[in-house]
Design brief:
The protein has about 300 residues and is of the alpha/beta class. It has one domain: Aminopeptidase, CATH 3.40.630. Helix 4 links the parallel strand 3 and strand 4. It has eight helices and eight strands.
């Protein structure tokens, strides 16, 4: 099945010109789930690491693998952040981010006998990866004027729910590398985190930590939603979430979290591709593309 999905992705990659292709993004969600759980140390994790790397290289990205052993959880985890760089090699940059790992358990499953099963991760992991790779397709055809890094965080979802501060391991490592000296300016004008953005019933509200710490960047997302007629983006704040944007904010990188947290399949075995909409993926990708090509950030 994975081979057939790969053939479909190859065919779709040759279509679309500068247009966002929601069906291509959805095919990439299907591909990730078919590979199996993307838990560090599993075959699915290794397969998707290689696949993301190859997709970035195919679309012209300059790929950096940031690997390290993390022992935060009391056991060694071999984690790898993947960075694909597009546009100018120097000067100001924008980071477009998503996590690519999946949760080792489905701890919110309504069936208690299935809670020890690994999360399929169609939306929680897969959707953000698919949108970032859709941006890679666009930038392969139309290089951005500003530097753009597509950042795929590992180790976002490996912690125990009782210890929320043990999440987001990959973004913590990335933030340490990106801003080792807090006395120097941030290398990033802004960072945008895309998490759980493929729900068929999409509703993206402004996230509370983003509003408090980077409201000017939040407003850029609102501008992008209006400009692209993204009707499932809302101007009011609804959630306060610890996600991959928080370590970036703590490092002094202006960052916002684009997330639809009202997702019934969250952390359940039902987080499958049938919960995902090509239209939702396309709407979010158009917002992200506007930020790259049309926003004030796009003209350094």
């Amino acid at each position: 099945m994975i081979a057939l999905i790969g053939l479909l992705l190859a065919a779709l990659a040759g279509c679309g010109g500068d247009a966002v292709d929601g069906e291509r993004a959805l095919a990439r969600v299907v591909h990730q789930v078919a590979a199996g759980p993307r838990v560090p140390g599993t075959p699915g994790h290794a397969a998707i690491l290689r696949w993301i790397q190859l997709e970035l290289q195919r679309t012209g990205g300059r790929v950096e693998l940031q690997s390290e052993t993390d022992s935060t959880l009391g056991r060694p985890l071999e984690l790898t952040n993947i960075v694909g760089r597009f546009g100018p090699a120097s000067g100001p940059r924008i980071a477009m981010c998503a996590h690519w790992d999946t949760r080792p358990v489905s701890d919110h499953d309504p069936d208690s006998t299935r809670r020890s099963q690994p999360l399929p991760g169609a939306n929680d992991g897969g959707s953000g990866v698919a949108v970032l790779l859709e941006l890679a397709e666009l930038m392969s055809r139309r290089p951005p004027r500003v530097g753009v890094d597509l950042v795929f965080f590992d180790g976002e979802d490996q912690a125990d729910a009782a210890h929320p501060n043990d999440y987001c391991l990959g973004s913590r490592a990335f933030a340490r590398r990106a801003r080792p000296d807090r006395n120097l300016p941030s290398p990033y004008l802004a960072a945008f985190v895309f998490d759980m953005i493929g729900d068929k019933d999409l509703a993206i509200y402004q996230e509370g930590n983003s509003v408090q710490a980077a409201n000017n960047v939040v407003q850029l997302v609102a501008d992008a939603a209006r400009a692209t007629h993204a009707s499932h983006f809302h101007d009011e704040s609804r959630y306060l979430i610890y996600d991959d944007h928080v370590p970036l904010l703590q490092a002094g990188i202006p960052a916002v979290d684009l997330i639809d947290f009202d997702y019934p399949a969250w952390h359940t075995t039902h987080d499958l591709p049938d919960q995902i909409s090509a239209a939702s993926l396309a709407e979010v990708a158009r917002v992200a593309a506007w930020l790259i090509y049309q926003s004030p950030l796009a003209h350094p």
